[in-house]
Write the structure tokens for this entry.
Amino acid sequence: MEFLGKLSLFIHIVVGISTLIAGPIALFYNRNTKKHKIAGKVFFYSMAVVVITSFTGFIKHPTVIFYQFLLFIGILVGFHIIRGFRAIFFMKGSLQPTFFDRQWAWMAIISGILMLGTAAYHLTTEAHIAFPILFGVFGLGSLADGRYFLRLLSVQKLDRRWWFQLHINSMFAAFMASTTAFAVNAASFAPWYIQWFAPTLILLPLQLYLLKKRKVSRKDLGNPFAEVTVTG
């Protein structure tokens, strides 16, 4: 069991490093290039392995608050990479949203609610204030992301550029998670709020720039829920 734990950690670190390399390459090259597609696939599968191996800590230490938090973050990242992957096919028109996609949206919503509940609970315990804040912030994010995806899935005749935007946002969110994990481990000397939130604050302008450059920002697309037919 100890060997499996060490092996899982080793794999987690190796594939985690690969996401830090493949992510920027996929972001830099245009989506129609071979380099983007190869880097994108490496990033997707590496992040999938990162998510799976991140559950190991929770399985070994289910009562430790840090590993509880990592469990929820793993679920959130898994949601983003699957949503980003599916968005490619929705954009191309080769697939239509299914029950599977709605289930993932609800998983993110339920996970967000549980994180908010966990944040409220730990406010009454002697846990470090960082954890209620982290559970609360990421819980709200998970709840909002799941709800937004669920609403998009219900829209008929949605402009294909919305799926392209969703692909960028989803994969960028996963990349932010990877860089945050690196910062938490590499910058242990910094205050906890710098470790957890600095990567997002640094990378967010780049995300907005890419959306604007590819003409899939909110300013370009408007409101996806206005003047459209919504099912269900």
